[in-house]
Write a structure and sequence with these properties.
Chain lengths: 231, 231
Amino acid sequence: MTLTIAPIRGLPEIRPGDDLAELVADAISGAGERLVDDDVVVVTHKVVSKAEGRIVPALDDAAYRRLVEQEAVAILRRRGDLVIAQTRHGFVCANAGVDRSNVEPGRAVLLPIDPDRSAHRLRIRLERRFDASLAVVVTDTFGRPWRRGLVDVAIGVSGLTPIVDLRGTRDAAGRILDATEVAVVDEIAAAADLVMGKADGIPAAIVRGLRARGDGRAVELVRPAEEDLFR
Amino acid sequence: MTLTIAPIRGLPEIRPGDDLAELVADAISGAGERLVDDDVVVVTHKVVSKAEGRIVPALDDAAYRRLVEQEAVAILRRRGDLVIAQTRHGFVCANAGVDRSNVEPGRAVLLPIDPDRSAHRLRIRLERRFDASLAVVVTDTFGRPWRRGLVDVAIGVSGLTPIVDLRGTRDAAGRILDATEVAVVDEIAAAADLVMGKADGIPAAIVRGLRARGDGRAVELVRPAEEDLFR
């Protein structure tokens, strides 16, 4: 199985009320391409949020900090301007996902209200347009404890099982694998980021060649507080 | 830029003292393929560790637990059989990287002593064999706080900058990006895992099409304790 990961170029700046599915489909068609069965379309949440009108004023740093507090349901850590917070969805990330990059000055972008639902809607529309069975992953860029640097992760998914459970299967040596639940959608999000790039303004990509279809929601990736050793 | 990610098939079971570079090169050549400039060869640390003789007896659970304590320089959390520990390299992971899957019963695999050096040696040999300028990433499978499921990350690298610093560059809207250091090698590790698969026994892959060459070591990914909010 060889994967290909291709950026989707030519998307315009997304505005509230835009039909994101149509714009993504047009960008793909405009490049002379099409989607085929089992393609995974990966989009950064920023274009989803913008299309859904999740852009709010943030005229100064104080207003931005108020937004962060408003979007957070729990603050895990603070240091200087950095706040590590849990969002309503359950995701733990910097500034509760409130972001001022790739948006016009004086404004901030919030996470989609229900990124799994956003992924699902996008998927249904793209499936109709290309007559293909697809999956969609909505991503954000998160930091990690212990490791420097950010990576893209999934915050919404449709048409894929977010975690593939290999427990009980055997490794190549015949030993039962005992702790191997792979967060496949996070690996897909990270892979897609390699062709998108925050500075290039390419907010979407196509991952082709995966055989990983299924069902589930990205909120299943949230580790319940009682299982979490770092809360 | 379109990426392709292809598994390297046909590697034999790796034994202490094996010439891993030669075996990887033979597997590539045997499939009628070759490496070209800018290819990134991704290998799971397990085959690196095995070739380097980092296999030790672990006859029962008590012996395994002693190994974990021996490989750890700091224990961050314990719950039941699970130990989250920091290794000598600085990585924070389950059981200090000591692993009993994909190895014969009664044995455990330790992390390479210096995975960056392992990556470097592999790179030099593969570059000579294919007369190409390459990069190598050595991976392991880590859990994360807050998020369920495991993802592959880089624990060794040669020929790539592990973290691409976009701070000071401008986004598509002209705003200075202010907190965007991307852990590109971790995204490469995650991407490669999509074609490897723990149950399939495919321990290596080729990522082709990236333009991300540079220098650095995976230990640069270790967040210094004083910067870390979760220690």
